[in-house]
Write a structure and sequence with these properties.
Layout: H1 10-17, E1 25-26, H2 44-47, H3 52-66, E2 73-77, H4 80-86, E3 95-99, H5 105-112, E4 116-120, H6 123-129, E5 132-136, H7 148-160, E6 164-168, E7 189-194, E8 207-211, H8 213-223, H9 230-240, H10 243-266, E9 270-275, E10 278-282, H11 286-295, E11 298-299, E12 301-303, E13 306-313, H12 318-332
Cofactor: pyridoxal 5'-phosphate
GO molecular function: threonine-phosphate decarboxylase activity
Pathway: Cofactor biosynthesis; adenosylcobalamin biosynthesis
């Protein structure tokens, strides 16, 4: 099976197009470029194994930040990608439906665990196909949102027959009203969150899965002891409790998305979707656009299975937006 190519591969971009990391503008990942400001940590946090009290404090912060029900289990992992990889191994091989086109790691990980994976175009066809259904909400890369009521109702039906609805909310911090995290804890649903995107802490590797206690205990057992580092737990706790930063950042990202969409439209790209962390556009020569930007040391994301699609992260500064504008103008002048 071929390796999935993700965004953020700046070393490979440098090898092909030159420059240094400091000179590249990375708009390829959907990670908030003005992430939560990490403070200095006590030296002991690096030296000692993280005890359970540190993990419990982080779980409590997540419960408060996301409105998690008291009956729900909070499983912590070194990034939500680890939950994505471990979860399929907890179920016997069976048909699994992924509502796509979406983040490809879900289908790949279930397939590698021996399941038969089908990509469907909505909840109805997914439910007709399998008892295990995966939804990314908001969807990556087009930003599609499936309403809470439909997801909760599906989780109840799947749970009643021993199935499971997996809801990946990696980009959910910018659409809090669509989140089903407050509904987690019932049989039949697991909701994944990450500090990588909205908080801009991808390097910390901290993901959370909210689910029924029995499934959560199995996840934790599969992940093993000390799954998350002490520094990641400390940073995650502080970030999750920072309500003022969260409110400011939502406003700033929304404004940044509007400005980016205006630039893309002016550059003759068709905006077809997105969230406040990325914008998806269409261009008949998307690969050529991406190559022209890379020549200017600007990284964006293209999709081999969707050759007209090109995705842009939200520039952090006005100067970054101006740089993108100039590069797109130069492409259109060719």
């Amino acid at each position: 099976m071929s390796r999935i190519v993700h965004g953020g591969r700046i070393d490979a971009a440098i090898a092909k197009h030159g420059g240094t990391r400091a000179k590249w503008l990375d708009l390829s990942t959907g990670i908030n470029a003005k992430g939560w400001p990490v403070p200095e940590l006590e030296a002991s946090i690096w030296r000692e194994l993280p005890d359970e009290g540190l993990a419990d404090t982080c779980r409590a912060a997540a419960r408060k930040a996301y409105g998690v029900h008291e009956v729900a289990h909070v499983s912590l992992a070194p990034g939500s990608q680890m939950h994505i990889q471990v979860l399929p191994r907890l179920f016997k091989p069976q048909p699994v439906a992924v509502v796509g086109f979406t983040y490809q790691e879900h289908g790949v990980c279930w397939q590698q665990a021996g399941h038969e994976v089908y990509v469907t175009d909505g909840l109805e066809s997914a439910e007709a196909t399998a008892r295990i259904v995966i939804v990314v909400n908001p969807n990556n890369p087009d930003g599609r949102i499936i309403g809470r009521s439909g997801l909760v109702a599906l989780a109840r039906r799947l749970g009643a027959k021993g199935g499971l609805l997996v809801v990946d909310e990696a980009f959910g911090d910018v659409t809090p009203n669509a989140s089903v995290v407050p509904e987690a804890g019932r049989d039949g649903m697991v909701v994944m969150r990450s500090l990588g995107k909205f908080y801009g802490l991808a390097g910390a590797r901290l993901g959370m899965a909210f689910c029924a206690p029995m499934l959560g205990e199995r996840l934790d057992s599969a992940l093993g002891p000390w799954a998350v580092s002490g520094p990641a737990l400390e940073i995650g706790t502080k970030a999750l409790l920072d309500e003022k930063w969260r409110a400011r950042t939502r406003k700033a990202l929304s404004a940044g998305r509007e400005a980016l969409e205006e630039v893309l439209l002016n550059a003759k790209l068709e905006v077809v979707g997105g969230t406040d962390l990325f914008v998806l556009a269409r261009h008949e020569k998307a690969d050529a656009v991406a190559e022209a930007l890379a020549a200017k040391h600007i990284a964006v994301r293209t999709f081999p299975r969707k050759p007209e699609w090109i995705r842009f992260g939200i520039p952090a500064r006005k100067s970054d937006l101006n740089r993108l504008t100039k590069a797109l103008t130069a492409f259109n002048a060719l």
